[in-house]
Amino acid sequence: MFTLLQVELYKIFKRPRTYIAFIAIAGLIGIIQLGLKLDGDAYVNFVMSNVEQSFTFDGKLLNGYLVCYIILQLLLVHVPLLIALVAADMVSGEANIGTLRLMLTQPVSRCEIILAKFTAAAIYTLLLLVWMAILALFVSIWLFGTDDLIIQKTRYLVQLSKDDIFWRYVGAFGFALLAMLTVAALGFLLSVFAENSIGPIVATISIIIFFTILSTMSIPIFQKIQPYLFTTHMVAWKEFFDLKVNADNTALKGTLQNKSQIVQSAWILIAHIVLFVGVAMFVFKRKDILT
Amino acid sequence: MLLLKHMEPIIQVKNLSKQFGDIVAVNDLSFTVPAGSVYGFLGQNGAGKSTTIRMLLSLITPTEGNIRFFGLPLQQHRKEIFKNIGAIIERPDLYGYLSAYDNLKMFACLNGMHPTHLQLMNQLEQVGLADRAKNKVKTFSQGMKQRLGIGIALIHNPSLIILDEPTNGLDPQGIADIRRLIVQLSKEQQKTILLSSHLLSEIEQMATHILIIDKGKKIIADSAAALFNPAETIVEIETTNNIASLAILKASKWQPHLQLNRGPNIFLKMHHDQIPDFNRALFNLNIQLLMLQPRHSLEDYFLQVTANSNSDTLILNH
Amino acid sequence: MKGIKILWIAMVALFITHNSNAQDETALIEKVKQKLDQVHDYVATGRMKTDVAFIKAPVGNVKMYYKQPDNFRLIREGGISILPKGGVTVNLNTIMATKSYVALFAGNTVTDGFPTKIVKLLPINENNAIVLTTLYIDEKNLLIRKAITTTKENGTYQINMQYGRYSNLGLPDKVIFTFNTHDYKIPKGVTLEMDEPLTDTDRKKMQQKNGRVEIDYASYTINKGLPPGIFNN
């Protein structure tokens, strides 16, 4: 199994396509950072204009933590597309070039192949997020420094002390990994059915876009189905950036406002991953390889 | 290494069938591949050869029947069995973005090997690709890919080699190379080889055993020695008046040799050595001969299969 | 604007008719001012608590810098401070820094258990940011217990002060700053948040328009000079 995983990773990282995502993320993050570096205050003023009617802020509002939050907010909607590019190609791509049948005539079981392939896709996803974390968090901290993080929620403003942020990012990236693994698992499942990679890639992206639109539109009829869409739960990483207040309305450091929401969403995503990979395995084990 | 039980056939297939919806691709097929044989699997395109081979390699699940390798059922012992099989199915599709060396190394690892650089280079040397070891496979010709495919199939020194249409798409030199390699593997290394083809000539030259299938059904399976038995030679004649000639032959001492209802021409089965006598007899019986063609029974079977279908894909090439 | 003008005219009229009374209060104000003027500058440390319905802010250590006549800055130690606009006026001294004003007596009352005199302070300069300040002055101790200030741009806010260790200099131990807040709502599409169910207490809280900032002063370093450039930012 370990050899198989090594082989799968080797295949992933020997392909130029794999690096598109890494380059794209570096490019996007770089552009956001450059933009904020050049004209970040205007951006912050614009975003905060609502509260700045009544309040003044003294301190480094535009700091590395905020930049990272902005990047995550913008990027985590699009990273699924990059993940689909690799995950939805894992099985179908090999069916397309014909190497799948060569793989399957080796002394390895189909279950092992599926698990190794998904694990490889998961490691790719992990590395992509680590790459994103390095660029979005550490480079932003290096470029913009640190200070408290002030975030606008739908109904309120949250101020997080700068010594109360890092663990939240660890949690948020961990949760984002779960969310992205769900995307990877979906792409992976679709790739089992197809004999070329374009179909499952496009299908995965379409499903994500479609569900995300349903998840974010505040129309009552959509709101009823939103709890059942995995895309709704994919944004729960933001819950790491909200804290509890005591009776005096003082924020309590190190707390999470909606811990149960995070846990629940995480379980829902894990259930999706298990389901998608399980179905993929079930289908793949019975699939006749005709290519 | 799997311990082969003494005298156990390498492959035993019993009542194998595969249906795709309403289409019966393989119909109740049974055969046995003895150890050390070059087993020729002959049939037209679409006869069910590839489906059968894919079932043997567990790429396709049979609708019915069972398969045993080395005396062990395939389903329960797939992994052990596959450690002793090297296979190429149709085209040798490899990872184009990897080098020949990397492709070879990867599949060696999948077979549980930890190959040394020397081992890998030796293998590439054997298939004549040592000088292209570091080149990406996407730059290779079809023949080079096929040779690399064979190198991969053989890297773990399997006792059974399954080759599905191995000369497809190759130039004459490539075809000759593959043939030489198969003969060498069989004679020098005592490997068992299952070889499928739609080319009679290919099978004829190498096989020790032959199975012909058509429309998923077995037509004949026997040793080459039996199928090429001179006592079983088929003679086809065409005369100026086939109907009259047939009547004359029916009344003659050649009557037991006649093979009836085979087509417009007249067919007889006899020992190869009897052909001059038969020729003289035709002259004496005053039969006006236009054509006389002897062929061994394998070729004859093959022609029968062709005659019954509209396909022109069977190539008789002597 | 029109309302303010009318108010202004009314105030001036009041000033003319009750001129003698007003003189008295100017003296009181001047006395309070003299007391406060003992402090030329200070650096104070303390803790700030923000209580605004739609802001979740942690309690933070703050440092305050003051220099006569009206320079004031509050810095959150290791963090960003969110202050109601016009935050400079958190400090009494700045309110009192107004040079020309009219002080009108408006009655007596009890504030935080202390008898206080209500004095309306009207700046004469029409361009002053402060429109009107109502002071609740503890005449006996010469301490301002409460101040309600109406500004031109930032609404009305109230400052309650509790004195202790530095009452002789007129510096409070605790300041509670109450102010009006604008409603806060941004469209959901912008934030892409998950929809949390809104509870009744949440809703009640949201409707509460007043915000509070409490500052507990831990220590003052008085008349020892200030780091240069502290008010430049």
Describe the structure.
The complex is a heterotrimer of chains A (291), B (318) and C (233). Chain A has helices at residues 2-14, 16-52, 64-75, 79-87, 92-97, 99-104, 110-144, 166-193, 198-216, 220-225, 230-234, 259-286; strands spanning 55-58, 149-152, 157-160, 250-251. With 291 residues, chain A is mainly alpha-helical. Chain A has a two-stranded antiparallel sheet with strand order 2-3. In chain A, helix 4 packs across helix 8 (166-193). Chain A is elongated. The two termini of chain B are 40 Å apart. Chain B has 11 helices and 14 strands. In chain B, a hairpin with a 2-residue loop joins strand 9 (209-214) and strand 10. Chain B is elongated and about 75 Å long. Chain B has 318 residues and is an alpha/beta fold. Chain B has 2 domains: 11-226, Rossmann fold (3-Layer(aba) Sandwich), CATH 3.40.50; 230-295, Alpha-Beta Plaits. In chain B, the strands form 3 sheets. In chain B, strands 6-7-8-3-9-10 form a 6-stranded mixed sheet, sandwiched between helices. Chain B has a 4-stranded antiparallel sheet with strand order 2-1-4-5, with helices on one face. A 4-stranded antiparallel sheet of chain B has the order 12-13-11-14. With 233 residues, chain C is an alpha+beta fold. Chain C has one domain: outer membrane lipoprotein receptor (LolB), chain A, CATH 2.50.20. Helices cover 22% and strands 44% of the residues of chain C. Chain C has 5 helices and 12 strands. Chain C has helices spanning 2-17, 19-36, 92-96, 188-191, 200-207; strands at residues 41-51, 55-58, 60-67, 71-76, 81-84, 101-111, 114-123, 130-138, 143-151, 156-163, 172-180, 210-222. In chain C, strands 4-3-1-12-11-10-9-8-7-6 form a 10-stranded antiparallel sheet, sandwiched between helices. In chain C, a hairpin with a 3-residue loop joins strand 3 (60-67) and strand 4. The longest helix of chain C has 18 residues, at 19-36. Classes of the chains: A mainly alpha (291), B alpha/beta (318), C alpha+beta (233). Chains A and C meet through helix 2, strand 1, strand 3 and strand 4 of A and strand 1, strand 2, strand 4, strand 5 and helix 4 of C.
